Amino acid sequence: MSLHIVHFIGPINHNAVCTIRNLCLQALQSGASEIELHMSTEGGNMTAGFALYFFLKSLPLPLTTHNIGSVESVGVVIFLAGGRRYACPGTRFLVHPLHWGFGNLVAADHSRVSEWRDCLDFDAERYACIFEEATRGAGGRDDIRSNLTGNARIFNADQALAAGIIHQAVQARLPAAGVTSHWWNG
Questions:
Q1: How confident is the model at residue 181, as a pLDDT?
Q2: pTM for the whole structure
Q3: Where are the domains of the chain?
């Protein structure tokens, strides 16, 4: 067995997603039989986040995710790609209303505004469905739809365990040198 740990701390954007994807692909090419993603992120770009989720789900080997700080917004979706999911005690997860930035846009017509609303609604439902699928079987099932359109919700490690976001609240431990390969962003 060859464990490879990808360490990621930072915002979710197209560059970060490409980096994580490339690190996972390098781990595969280096003979990984299992990948762990140790992550802490404030979230970011929804399009990039969903793309990373679906990429991680396509990996042909077991993926474990571990919250090592805070996993927020679309980062929660990415985190849920793990078949086994852990969080260090004292960490948190944040589910909050989805939003888009409009960059340099100074004008939009009714059709464009309607399109953006429809896309936000679609992404909120997609997020909720991923959450429901990943947490199925948990004793304290949560419908997060209201948190994606209204009030934010913070889950500490114990609450995340009850909700099925994680399988165990446990401190991340790095295996002894020489046993594991480490990959990192930045």
A1: 77
A2: 0.92
A3: 3-184
